[in-house]
Design goal:
The complex is a heterodimer. Chain A has one domain (2-241). Helices cover 81% and strands 0% of the residues of chain A. Chain A has 13 helices and no strands. The longest helix of chain A has 28 residues, at 129-156. Chain B is of the alpha/beta class. Chain B folds into two domains: 5-223, P-loop containing nucleotide triphosphate hydrolases (Rossmann fold), CATH 3.40.50.300; 231-298, MTH889-like domain (Alpha-Beta Plaits). Helices cover 34% and strands 29% of the residues of chain B. A six-stranded mixed sheet of chain B has the order 6-7-8-3-9-10, sandwiched between helices. A four-stranded antiparallel sheet of chain B has the order 2-1-4-5, covered by helices on one side. In chain B, strand 4 (58-63) and strand 5 form a beta hairpin. Chain B starts with a strand and ends with a helix. The chains are: A mainly alpha, B alpha/beta. At the A-B interface, helix 1 and helix 5 of A face helix 2 and helix 3 of B.
């Protein structure tokens, strides 16, 4: 626990000592604003809510979250500091968890900086703040599961660009798994239940219900299972790939 | 059993390639073990296994009773390790970095400040504590790496090429530091700088192609040299027959001569048996009344021994 926190603090500091954190936050907040107002039509809809922001969030996350996750392990392996880290009295599990936690806290900070939009809608009207809170939780859970995937992919390579591209691709497949694009590939031969399982793996389906204000236990289980599975895979990969 | 560090049949295979092939050795408290070998001999791989970074294919290392395969965390707590090339987090300052290492090692509060001050002081990095590590010179980076390794005053200190990239003064400092710490620890240093072995090591292990090919005190290793007990002389005004006269002496094997100009000649007289031949050689020179400018008995040449034992095993 102590080591997990120490690693988490170091990682979080690493984000903020490089320009990455500031570039990320500025672009994330600006793009959130832009997509909410222009594509989402925040004003034109004539409703005091944040749906326009949260409906675009999964797409922003699709390429911004892999950018946060790509350095987690690839950088350590490339610079050789992995050897330093893994010869300190740190279990692989607490290293994986500490790093993940730092990236998650960082994305949480970025997400919380969209608060001016929340102030705006509250000033203009009477939004259902319960739904908005649920949406923030949904966004956070989505960021967490994207990060778990991105961190796992980052552990597979020492090249951050590969980690970014592959991470984004894997996340995209998970997002799309409820759409015909993916399902059609399985419908022809796979049994119905498998198609349904694949369909249920979609981030979008689970996200949509949370953003509507319904925090269903099944959706929570889904997100935490994704995180659990990929963090576990991350531990396995770090142990396997050591020194290779 | 009192040995703090025991390495038993340690083996590492990467696919078909055997990097480390069943090495055994033990090190007791107070010993400074020099780990020698040509590049690619398996030194770094062996150290990585002992420190719990690489899982061994066979065998194990035991640190103060803890088997690295079963209790890796306990072993890592007891060991201070400087990995090859001293990898560090470039975006941190030494102060932040050492604080992080102290936190991970569960040293906190006043103990942490004391540990950091002491390590920084011992290795002389106090005045760069607040500069990003990435901007430091190679010598400082290496020293920050060493500071990290000695931060928790470990029982076992493993340093992979600690003086690589340091200037002669810094090398001298690091060697002094190692000597100071040696009495109550096990220190293992890998190096290919042979003079270092004489200066800091109480024992040396030579490995080649993944196996231990020599294990002994530096003096014992030097004694394996053909130069051991040879007498080197520099004389002026010598006649050509000098070498023949020396060769005719009892217990003298061969004599090598080389002219160095100004009528001066340098000779190396090798004994035929491992005995000191200074006496007969100097007597002979006196009888021939040549002017001796320099004369000394060779201890043996480490580089020659190193070359012999690491190349003969290759075939």
């Amino acid at each position: 626990m102590v080591t997990t926190l120490a690693i988490c603090r170091r990682e979080l500091r690493a984000y903020f000592t490089t320009p990455l954190a500031y570039v990320f936050i500025v672009i994330f907040v600006a793009m959130n604003g832009a997509t909410a107002f222009f594509f989402g039509g925040l004003f034109d809809r004539g409703q005091a809510d944040m749906t326009s922001l949260f409906s675009m969030l999964p797409w922003l996350y699709l390429f911004l979250i892999p950018a946060v996750a790509m350095r987690l392990w690839a950088e350590e392996r490339k610079s050789g500091t992995l050897e330093l880290l893994m010869t300190l009295p740190v279990s692989t599990t607490s290293a994986v968890f500490g790093k993940f936690l730092a990236a998650w806290v960082f994305s949480g900070i970025a997400l919380s900086l969209t608060f001016p939009v929340w102030i705006t809608v509250n000033w203009l009207g009477n939004p259902d703040n319960g739904i908005i809170l649920a949406s923030y939780i949904g966004g956070l859970l989505m960021a967490g599961s994207y990060l778990a995937i991105g961190g796992f992919v980052s552990a597979l390579t020492r090249n951050q660009v590969i980690a970014f591209v592959v991470g984004a691709a894997v996340i995209f497949l998970f997002m799309m798994s409820s759409l015909d694009l993916i399902l059609a590939a399985f419908r022809g031969w796979a049994p119905i239940f498998l198609v349904e399982v694949i369909q249920s793996l979609s981030f979008l389906v689970h996200y949509d219900s949370i953003v509507r204000g319904v925090i269903d236990l099944r959706d929570l289980v889904f997100y935490f299972s994704i995180m659990g599975v990929f963090l576990f895979a991350n531990v396995v990969v770090v142990d396997q790939k050591r020194g290779a | 059993m009192s040995d703090l560090l025991r390495v038993i049949g340690l083996t590492k295979k990467f696919g078909d390639f055997t990097a480390v092939d069943g090495i055994d050795f033990s090190v007791a408290r107070g010993e400074v073990l020099g780990f020698l070998g040509p590049n690619g001999a398996g030194k770094t791989t062996a150290m990585r296994m002992v420190t719990g970074f690489l899982p061994p294919t066979g065998g194990t290392a035991i640190v103060d009773g803890f088997d690295v395969r079963i209790h890796p965390i306990e072993v890592k707590r007891k060991v201070g390790y400087l990995p090859e090339g001293a990898p560090l987090y470039d975006d941190m300052t030494p102060s932040e970095f050492l604080t992080f290492v102290a936190n991970v090692r569960n040293i906190d509060g006043a103990d942490r400040d004391r540990a950091i001050d002491s390590a920084a002081g011992q290795i002389n990095i106090q005045h760069v504590m607040h500069q990003p590590i990435g901007t430091l010179s190679k010598g400082y980076k290496r020293r920050v790496g060493i500071a990290q390794a000695i931060l928790h005053n470990p029982d076992v200190l493993i340093l992979d090429e600690p003086t690589d990239g340091l200037d002669p003064n810094q090398k001298h400092e690091v060697r002094n530091l190692i000597n100071e710490m040696a009495s109550d620890k096990v220190i293992v240093i890998s190096t290919h700088i042979l003079e270092e072995v004489d200066v800091v090591c109480s024992r040396a292990i030579v490995i080649a192609n993944g196996t231990v090919v020599a294990d002994g005190k530096p003096l014992e290793l030097e004694a394996r040299s053909s130069f051991h007990n040879a007498v080197s002389v520099r004389v002026s005004g010598a006649t050509d027959s000098l070498a023949d006269k020396l060769r005719a002496l009892p217990m003298v094997g061969k004599v090598e001569t080389s002219k160095i100009g100004d009528g001066k000649v340098s000779l190396t007289v090798f004994p035929s048996r491992p005995v000191n031949i200074l006496e007969p050689v100097s007597e002979c020179l006196r009888e021939l009344s040549v002017t001796v400018e320099q004369i000394h008995v060779e201890r043996g040449r480490m580089d020659e021994v190193f070359r012999n034992i690491t190349t003969t095993t290759k075939s």
